[in-house]
Specification:
Radius of gyration: 24 Å
Number of helices: 6
Number of domains: 1
Order of helices and strands: HEEEEHHEHEHEEH
Structural class: alpha+beta
Helix content: 25-40%
Shape: globular
């Protein structure tokens, strides 16, 4: 039996098409960014807090509006006592004077309890407050929430006029460049 050269040609041409179709197709990932953008007013909020010395009084929660006129760093992070969060908060503490300075307000925010925050802050000797956002309402408002049920690591610098001056929605606690960019943004917001 003779096979037509045209059939062989067609059979050869079909093979690469089949091989190409069997490769997995990568679908692009889309990340929706919500929350306040740079230049917009930072939404006010009120949250309970703790620091290395204890749990803050219930009648004196942290309120962002009270720090109007100061530079404020809002650091959303997933969970106390985890490796990445410990690295981030420890770096903030170790480099506090060079990254922020004495006139800058720094707060860490996640859903952990004030008791857990107090133990975490005491263990690391953190010179700033940790705020509890148990229902993640503030994290959602700031676009720092993901489907894991925990805040996404996001850092904001709020300028003295109450506007967002800097936002990093993918802050990497292991990348020195992210700390450098944060420090520069704080200095710029302070007018240094």
């Amino acid at each position: 039996m003779r096979v037509s050269p045209v059939l062989l040609l067609l059979a050869g041409a079909a093979a690469p098409v089949v091989a190409q179709e069997s490769k997995p197709v990568k679908t692009p990932t889309v990340v929706l960014v919500s929350g306040p953008q740079v230049g917009h007013t930072a939404p006010d909020f009120t949250l309970a807090w703790a620091n290395k010395d204890g749990v803050g009084p219930a009648d004196n929660p942290y309120q962002l509006w009270r720090d109007r006129g100061k530079t404020v760093v809002l650091a959303f992070y997933p969970k106390d006592f985890t490796s990445g969060c410990t690295a981030e908060m420890q770096t903030f503490a170790d480099q506090y004077d060079t990254l922020f300075g004495p006139d800058v307000i720094v707060v860490g925010i996640n859903a952990d309890s004030v008791d857990t925050h107090q133990r975490f802050a005491a263990k690391l000797g953190l010179p700033f407050r940790l705020l509890t956002d148990p229902d993640l309402k503030v994290a959602r408002t700031y676009g720092s929430y993901d489907s894991s049920g925990r805040p996404r690591r996001t850092v904001f610098v709020v300028a003295p006029d109450g506007r967002v001056h800097y936002r990093n929605s993918k802050f990497n606690p292991m990348d020195p460049k992210d700390y450098s960019a944060l420090g520069a943004a704080v200095r710029e917001a302070r007018g240094s």
